[in-house]
Amino acid sequence: MNSSVSAARCRVSSLHYSYPSVAAPSVPVDFATSISGSCASDGEDYYAVRVDLTDLTSNLIISSSDTPIGYNASMFNVTGHNTVTTPPSNMSWPVQIHVYVIRAGGTSGQYLLDYQNSTTAIIQVGPIAVPEFHLNPAFEAFTLLTATLMFLKKFKGMKVRVLG
């Protein structure tokens, strides 16, 4: 059995994610992933950036995109775009962003992973739910009576002058 191990040949100097922090339910949103770096490129291997989005509530990949770097990847700066539709209900929506730099071997024909990174994005879909407070009517009456007595005590003995 003959096996070979290949080391990662790419270094990423900058990775930036852009996506909305708030969105309405059931609308398309864009995730832009900008990646800069360099690879040990001899001109024979073709490089690309792949970005996968995973909905962490269902653990399903909801979008994949491939952005070409090309054969000369000694210095690159590319931006990949993924468009997904937000869930139909209000929620804090966690989406994991997986970024890969992939090399397609020109001589070997194998696809090799030369870089990977992942981060989690949280998008607030719809308004944040505000808790409802249901008070006991007896407590409401007690609070109103207490506030009225405090008001009357504070202003007891004050002279009121009516302008006319």
What does this structure look like?
With 164 residues, the chain is mainly β. It has one helix at residues 137-155; strands spanning 10-18, 22-23, 28-39, 46-55, 60-70, 76-85, 91-104, 111-125. It is built from one helix and eight strands, in the order E-E-E-E-E-E-E-E-H. It has a five-stranded mixed β-sheet with strand order 2-8-7-4-5, with no helix packed on it. Strands 1-3-6 form a three-stranded antiparallel β-sheet, with no helix packed on it. The longest helix has 19 residues, at 137-155. The protein is elongated and about 95 Å long. Mean pLDDT is 84; it is low at 1-6.
Low-pLDDT parts are 1-6
List the total number of helices. Answer: 1
SS class: mainly beta
- For the record, the CATH architecture stands as Sandwich
User: If strands are numbered along the chain, what order do they take across the biggest sheet?
Assistant: 2-8-7-4-5
What fraction, in percent, of the residue positions are helical?
10-25%
Report the order of strands and helices.
EEEEEEEEH
Instruction: From the alpha carbons, calculate the radius of gyration and give it in angstroms.
Output: 29 Å
Question: What is CATH's topology name?
Answer: Immunoglobulin-like
State the name of the first-level CATH class: Mainly Beta
CA(first)-CA(last) distance? 107 Å
Estimate the mean pLDDT confidence: 84
Q: In this structure, how is the largest beta sheet organized? A: 5 strands, mixed
State the CATH superfamily name: C2 domain
List the helices and strands and how they pair.
Blueprint: E1 10-18, E2 22-23, E3 28-39, E4 46-55, E5 60-70, E6 76-85, E7 91-104, E8 111-125, H1 137-155
Parallel strand pairs: 2-8
Antiparallel strand pairs: 1-3, 3-6, 4-5, 4-7, 7-8
